[in-house]
Amino acid sequence: MASKTDSLSGLEAPDRVHYATGVMLGAEDFQAEQDYHRGRLARALAHAAGYGTLAGLFVDHQGAQAATGDQPARDERLLVNPGLAIDRLGRLIEVPRPSCLRLAQWYAAQPASELAQAWHEAGGAWEESPAGVVLDLFIRFVACPRGKTPSFAGSAFDSFDSITAARLRDGFAIEPVLRKEAEPVQPSVPWDDVSPGDAESLRRALFAAWREGTENHRGEDAALEPLDEHVPGQDPSALLLARVLLPADAPVADQRPARRLDEPVKVRNELRNFVVPLAALTRWLDIPLTPPADSKFIEETTP
Questions:
Q1: pTM here?
Q2: Where are the beta strands (DSSP E) in the chain?
Q3: Contact 3/171 with Cβ under 8 angstroms?
C-alpha cells in the first residue's frame, strides 16, 4: 500500500472555507475543510498533550520458532504491539494489530559496512551493554490511499479513464535506523529545562515553547527541526519506540558482524517519550478524586 504526502505536514495557515449561496466548490475547497479541522485538532494535541507514546506500542523480541502441530513456523522478529501515539505535528498514529520486523532477514539485507559502523564494544551503547550492533526503531505517520474511483484527468499526461484513491487511511510505518555514532545519542527529553517544583523555570519554558518558524509554523520554508535521535534525511516527525542491541562479534575486514544468537537481544523501551493521560497522572500523584465512604460530602448531598 503506497503512502501519500500528508497535507498537514505543509499546512501554512488555519484558513476555514467560507460558504455562500451560489459559490462553486472544487476539490481544493473540501481539502481545505479537512485540513482546517485536522490541523486545529493536531495543533491542540501537540501543545496540550505533547508527543510520544500514549498507550501500548511495546517492542518485544521474539526468537525463531519451528513449526509445531498447531503452530506455523515463525521467523525471528521485533514485534511492535498495538497502541497509540501522538507525533510531533499532533497527528494520531494508531497500530491496530501487532506489526513485526523480520529481524534475521533485515540483518542479512543490510550492507556489511553499515552494520560494522553500528557495532559497539561492550559498554559502548550504554553502561554494561554487551558488544553488538545497535539500532533504533521508529514509527511515523503515513497516509495510505485505499480503493479506486473514476476521476477527471489531473494533467495532460493522464489517460482518459483516469482514476484516483477513493479514501485515505491514517497509517504508519516502522523504520529501523542503525546507530553509527561512536557514542549512540541519547533521545531528546521534552521540557528538560523545567526544574521540579520550580514555578519560575516552568513559566520560562512555557514562554519559550512557541518557536515560530520551526515546530509550530508549517510551510514550505519552515519544517520541523530534527531531534537529537534523528539521522540526516529522516522524517523529523518520526517517534523513537525503542533502542535495540543485537549481540555480535567485532567485524572482521569487510564482513558483517557475526551475531551471537545464544545471547538475548536487548530492547530498551523506556528511552522513548510518553504522553501521560491526566487520569493516570492524578493516580500516580495519589490525588484522591473519589471521596471516602464516610465523607461528609456524601452525607450532605444524599437525598
A1: 0.84
A2: 52-56, 59-62, 77-80, 83-86, 92-95, 99-102, 119-120, 132-150, 163-178, 239-247, 266-268
A3: yes
